[in-house]
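Q: Please design a sequence for this.
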């Protein structure tokens, strides 16, 4: 099994490059170094990377708003998939969020990302059909 550790800002450049190379992962302005610094500072100890042979092979970010936990950017490099790394990262986030008093968790999957949808269903997550998510950005800030 790979080594799982807390994500740090020192991992940023490696992770962004892995995300750029991974289909189904969407990078936005909110994934900038500055925004990631704020996120990790606001949610210390809640995001993780997995390393194999000294190289990052997977990552996940999580945080909360005081009531609900949010998982984001789960990524496992194709060569390391189907080894339980993704599931281990998810469970690490859930345990860390539960340690913060959070008992319900959400995540977003881009429509059309069947691989991600299948993974999350297999982990016991379910697609909400009782709510619609609405987003807002100021005009001209479509990549926020």
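A: Design:
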């Amino acid at each position: 099994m790979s080594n799982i550790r807390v994500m740090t800002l020192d991992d940023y450049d490696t992770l962004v490059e892995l995300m750029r190379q991974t289909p189904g992962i969407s990078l936005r302005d909110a994934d900038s170094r500055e925004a990631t610094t704020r996120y990790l500072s606001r949610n210390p100890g809640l995001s993780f990377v997995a390393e194999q042979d000294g190289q990052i092979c997977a990552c996940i970010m999580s945080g909360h708003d005081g009531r609900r936990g949010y998982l984001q950017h789960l990524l496992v490099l194709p060569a390391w998939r189907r080894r339980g790394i993704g599931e281990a990262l998810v469970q690490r986030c859930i345990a860390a969020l539960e340690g913060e008093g959070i008992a319900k968790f959400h995540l977003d999957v881009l429509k059309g990302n069947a691989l991600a949808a299948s993974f999350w269903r297999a982990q016991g997550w379910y697609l909400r059909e009782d709510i619609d998510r609405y987003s807002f950005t100021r005009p001209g800030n479509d990549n926020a």
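Q: Thanks. Anything notable?
A: Residues 3-122 form a domain with the Aminopeptidase fold (CATH 3.40.630.30). The radius of gyration is 15 Å.
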